[in-house]
Amino acid sequence: MIKLLLVDDEQIEREGMQAILERSFSTVIIQQASNGQMAVEIANEFQPELVLMDIKMPGMNGLEAVERISARHPSTHFIMVTAFDSFEYMRHAIKLGVKDYILKPSKPSDIVVTVGRILNKIEEEKQFFEKEKLRLQKTLAVIETDVVTQLLYDHVHEVHVDMLIEMLEIPYSNEMFIMLVVLPGSEKVYHSSIKEKVRASKSGWVGPLYNCQLPIVVFRDTTQSFRSQAMRLAREILSLAKVDFGEEWFIGIGSECTSWEGIRQSYHHALMSSMDTGIPAKFHFYSDDVTPHTRNQDPLKKHREKEFSDLIRRGEWEQIRVHLMNITQFFENENGNILYTQQRLLEVLWLISRVFMEMGIETQTPMYTYQISDYRQLQPATDQLLDRMIKSYEEHFSKLEADTIHQLKQYIIEHSQHDISLDTLAKRVGLSPIYISKMFKEKLGINYIDFLTECRMEKAKKLLSDPRKSIKEITFEVGYHDPNYFSKVFKKVNSFSPKEYRKSLIGK
Where is the Response regulatory domain (predicted)? Predict the structure, then answer.
C-alpha cells in the first residue's frame, strides 16, 4: 500500500480528488489536510510517499509546506495542484524536487494518468530499494569486517564507526572487550555460524577469520557484570561447536577497555589467554593470569616499544633475537612458570607481527604449535617462529611495487559507486589490507574510507546540478544504499545537506 496525502483548503476539492483516486487505485491509503501547517504536522506522523499539494492556501502556502516536509522526509514525492499555470510557481516547485503538477480544473482521466505515473515510479523505487537492502546486508558484513580489522591493527575514523553502529543497530557502550575464538580449521561455515549468533544477540562485531582465529569486538552490556556477559556469550558460541560441528573450540577473553585505542591491548590479551586450550571450561580470561607481582617483574614493561619497532622496520634481526633470549634467560633464572614465559615471548613476536601488518608484510600470527614443557624446548621453538617471520620480511621486499598507491587511487576514482573494501583493494595489488590502510594514511594523509567518500561526494555534487534527479536516485548512483545515511555523510563532509547544496546551485 502507498500512503498519499491530499492538501487543499477547499473541502469539496479534497473530497472530489479522493473519490477519483480511490476509484482508480486500490493500493493507496489517503489522508487529508486543509492547510500547509496541518500538512506538515500530518506528514511527520503519517509519512506519506506521495503528496498532492495545493499552492494557494491561507497561512503557509503549498510551496512552503513542500519545503518543510521534504526537509524531514527527503524521499517523499510531490505533485502540485493549482489553478495558476505560472512559470515562476513551477520553477520554484522544480527547485524543491516536485515531480509533476495538475491544473484546476482537470479531467478525472488526466488526474489518474498523472498520479498513476508517479505511483508507478514509487513502486519501481520500492522494488529497487528491496534489492538494495539485500545487497546492503552483504555490504555491511564486508564493512563490519573492515572496521574490526582497522580497530585491531590501525586507526579508524570515528565518523564511520558511529555511523556503522547506527546502521547495524547494535546497542553501543563506551566499554568493550575482545573475545578470540580459536577454531580447529578455517572453514567459512564456522565464521558464518558464529557471525549469525553474535548478530542475533546484537552484542558486537565479528572480524576476519585468519589463521584459525576469529576476533569479536564485544560491546559491554551494563545491566550485567563483565564476567557474566563474557561467559554467557562464550558458552553460546561454544554450544555451536558441539551441536553443529562436533568440534571443540576455545575462546580467549581480553581485558575491558573504554576507547578505540585500548581495543588493540584487549586483542593482545585475548591472544595470550587463548594459549592454553587444555582448560576444561574451554574459555579463559586474561585477568585470571596477571597479578601485580608478575606484572612488576615483566621485563617487557621496561622496553620502549617504538625503539623495538624501529629495529623491526630496519630488519636488525640479531638484536631482536638477543632480546628474546634475554627474556627467556630472565624468567628461567627466576624459576618462572613456563606458560607465563611463553606469553611474554609471544608479546614480542606479536609486536613484530603487528609492525609487519603495518608494513604490508603477510605473516601468520606466531603461535607455539606444541606444548612446551621446559626451557630447553622453549628457546629453539621461539627461534623457529622468528625465522619464519624473517623469511616473510625478506620475501615481501622482493615483490613490492612502487606505483601501488597510484593504482589504488585510480581504481577507487573509477569504481567509487561500487562497494570497495580493504580486501578488494588488497587483492588488486597483492598486499595485505592492513598495509593498504596504513599506506593511505602515510602517503595521502587520509583513511582509505575518507578518500572513497571524497570521490563519492564529488560525483554527488555533479549529479545534484541536474534537477531531474532525485536525492534517492543520486544516493544509489554514487554508491550508497540509504538516502538518510547519504545525506548525513554529505552534510558532514560539505557542512550543508544535499538539498541545501542543490538550492545554492540553482540560485547561482
Answer: 3-119
